[in-house]
Queue: 2 jobs
Job 1
Amino acid sequence: MEHNRYKVFTYGCQMNESDSLRMGTQLEQLGYKSTENLEDATIILINTCCVRESAEKKIHGKIGEIKNLKRKNPEIILGVVGCMAQKEGEKLFRKAPHIDFVLGTNKIHELNNVINDIKMSRHHMTNLAPDDGGMPQEVLPPTSDALSVWVPITYGCNNFCTYCIVPYVRGREHSRPMSAIIDEVQNYSKTGVKEVTLLGQNVNSYGKELTDTSFAKLLYELDKIDGIERVRYMTSHPRDLSDEVIDVIRNSRHICSHFHLPVQHGSDRILKAMNRGYTIENYRNLIKKVRTAVPDCSLTTDIIVGFPGETDEDFKDMLEFIKEMRYDAAYTFLYSKRSGTPAATMENQVEEKVKKERLNKLMAVQNEISLEINKKLEGSVVEVMVEGPSRTDEAVYTGRTSNNKIVLWEKRGQEQAGDLVQVKINHAQTWVLKGDAIYG
Ligand code: 5AD
Ligand code: SF4
């Protein structure tokens, strides 16, 4: 029995985190238990990301590390799963023959079959999704005592932004039936889950290929489920955010007032080359609409610097635009060339050094804005859902506000994970708010 342990390494987005948990559920059906100690594991899974080259490099490093372990214990089964697995397929065996199997995206439900086959034959095995990604079969959600869970609602992406590899690996967009999602969340509510985060590459287009289904309708239904205090979602495409969704959020009890609307750039010329499907003016109007409807909402974004052809002028436009938007936070990325995407063969690729300089400038401007926005909260009282002790100090607790600000306070009461507490903010920083919980 002591050999029945597994360890999953997860890279990339929340969809991968969710898939990793669902793979864990399957392994548990085979009698395996999770372990944090790699030396104990006989199944090791690496759930991969390929959205940027930096992720791929890290993953190759991790695959390399497992080689020595396998030399010591040949019983170990090493599986590489997820996006990079889907993209590279059999090529991975050539680079690293100690890998036992490669399982593509949307193939989570095949995991146990593949493992059973390997145990019998010890041959390399590959199982990849078809070209359009396909609609994955339902996999049991994890049976844990978690308070916060991920719930996939769409798979794949139809947008083909010219820099992005996702539509090529994860295939066309498919929406899960609304009844499956509602059932899953209802079941969670009975096990004490308080927060759900809906996942998809572009949740705003949820239900487009189904009848009588839309993201607004889904949110409306989920808002009614008792016990679920907070509903979040990731990630959105600004072009597809409908008036109905804004309306449902404004009138809801539990849908968080946080809008993550990736703008990607601040210059119309670059947005066009990125195939984003909106102009700066469209985006500006959307944000006005959102902020008028939900005045206390927080707004975050994703931005890429160094897209091919980006001039100093384009970069200046980007800086001006983020100053105008005053985002609560921005996730900033260096453009990474992904072969197979249209942008990879565009002329005027920006030099690495220039990209890095621009990224540093952008981060400095955004950090100042984030800090200014957070400073305004000093002296106010915010409602926080308790997550538990912080990573560095058992006595300091952490949680989030409805609009996704991270709050830290010294625990002096009985609060537990999942509770809602009031915290008076007395020290705001760029990424976190520190304060005192108000008891009784
Ligand atoms: N290079 C850099 N960033 C990228 N993203 C997607 N593809 C690339 C790429 N090739 C970023 C986008 C997206 C986020 C999840 O990752 O900003 O919103
Ligand atoms: Fe990539 Fe664009 Fe789809 Fe997002 S919307 S996954 S950036 S292609």
Job 2
Amino acid sequence: MKDKKSLSNRRAFIKTTGKLSAGAMTTGLFAGGLFTGSPALAREPEKKLGVALVGLGNLSTKQIAPALQKTAHCRLAGIVSGTPEKRKKWASQYDLPESSIYDYESFDKIADNDDIDIVYIVLPNSMHAEYTIRAAKAGKHVFCEKPMATSSEDCRKMINACRDAQRKLGIGYRCQFEPHHLECMKFAAEKNFGPLRHITAGFGFKIGNPKQWRLNKELAGGGPLMDVGVYALQACRYLAGGEPESISAIEIKTDPVKFAEVEETLNWSMQIGDVSCSCQTSYAYNGINQFHAYGTKGHFGLAPAFSYKGIKGTSSSGPIKFPQVDHFQMELDDFAQCVKNDSPTRVPGEEGLRDMLVLEAIYESAATGKTITPAAFQ
Ligand code: NAD
């Protein structure tokens, strides 16, 4: 029974992410995003798709907008912000026309803007669903930051809205476009170090300002698990090549005032086929940012694994070394090519939903003390 279930889990995983390594190859990831062409693009090979950013906070300002100055297949074409000063500053810095600048009330008028093809949602987590759905209804393709939403129910609504509008939905899982991660996925899939038996993975940081939205349950949906623990979960899923069959989690809280609404630290373990995974996420301390995978013939891993820069890899056969890339440039160029070619993204909404079902099971286990089987494959 367990074998049958584990096989079907593996198949479901491969169905979505099997395009992953193949996708990496066909999009020419390592050759600077080579494009093989589609009839539409053959007519306009140089056309860069227009991207509108919704939410001009830290990530948009420091990572995404700079990445959009380097992308080959898309460009910054519009902004959505509730702050007049930010709108003015960005319009001047990026030479954006007045007609492509929106606030949250006027956002739906983006439907009339032919210069914008993709809307990238970079808002606090609980706002992802509303803006994804509004963007899809406006006829735009949607790229949405992680975590996809704050509940599996919202993830499903987002998937349905994009499906109904016949628009693509991609989730900002930037590590799936990073060469060290791709190499590790290949090691795992090709069993270079033997079949995997164990993975450790963790991501966390010491959080500052106690008033920020990341500590507000209504806006964040949860604490470090939603925010950065999802990277550790992703790594386990794409290395083990399947879905968790059983999950148990423990929450640790040393500061109940600061962490009144969300968890401070979560340790969880899960079984994916023959692979046991031991994971951690925390807002209490710095330095946890790694994964390591152990096979029957050797081991490999990355540390730091999930930072924007400086990814380093080691293995029992020597270092894992690739050029550093801009993760946001890679993910955006890949998504733009999927839109241009009408090809599937390797980070679809369904991938975000699968993670959300596991995150919900982790919270349930931490709250009840029980071992949980995620609802995904029941
Ligand atoms: P941020 O707080 O710096 O920016 C959030 C933006 O949303 C701000 O411009 C703020 O004005 C706007 N906003 C609109 N309504 C708001 C409200 N009700 N409360 C608070 N802010 C509101 O956050 P960020 O770090 O840019 O994160 C944004 C999203 O990006 C989050 O979903 C986060 O998980 C994700 N993120 C992803 C990565 C990554 O590596 N992929 C890194 C950081 C953040």
